[in-house]
Amino acid sequence: MKKLLLSLLIASSPFFLAQNVVLSKVVKSHSNEDKVFYKINADFASAEYLGEVEVRGFSDNDAEIFGMVYKKAKEIGANAFSYKPFQEVDETFSKFDPGHYKLSLYYVSSSYFPKEDNAVYLISSPYKKQTISINNDKKIFEERTFTKFELKSGEIYTISTRGLLGSTIKIAAQQNQPVQYFQLSGASVNSNDYGKPGINLKSGDIMRLEQSYAQFLTTIYQYFK
């Protein structure tokens, strides 16, 4: 019984549940002060290959994992990445495993990064299924999924987390408007700001994300139309 209890304690300890993010391969490094870390295709011709980072262990704290990956990438001057699937014995490629994956690391001159003007990415919560509406058209987001659409000139798009206490944003196409990323969050109960009594009830929020982090999420989340 003592051995069983000890095994359970070890298995549930933070050490064994911690994620391990390592530079698994370094070919070269690049000296630069770029802060960005953008996703590119693996066959992107203008990219200089630097190495690989490997993530071992699952966590739903995506921001923490991204921070660890970003730190490792910057150790060798990487400002771009692509997903690198594992190859099976039969030479097929394995499906994405959120508990174990690799990213190839690159340096790309800022002028060569591809643009997606007037594109919008909507990224789900990592924790729960959620229904939102886009111009009153309901769309169901399973946890850890995302979708993409293009803004058409002359149209205004209303995105809402629905419900009396939900959030709503309105966006429209503009000339040379950079790609936009938004993440959905589920219902929450929060205390009001200091000095304001009561609590703040929300049925969902829509948060704008920085491009580097958002593109990391669209790598480890599943796309749906």
From TrEMBL:
UniProt KW Signal keyword: yes
Signal peptide: 1-18
UniProt keyword annotations, A-Z: Signal
Protein name: Molecular chaperone GroES
UniProt organism field: Kaistella antarctica
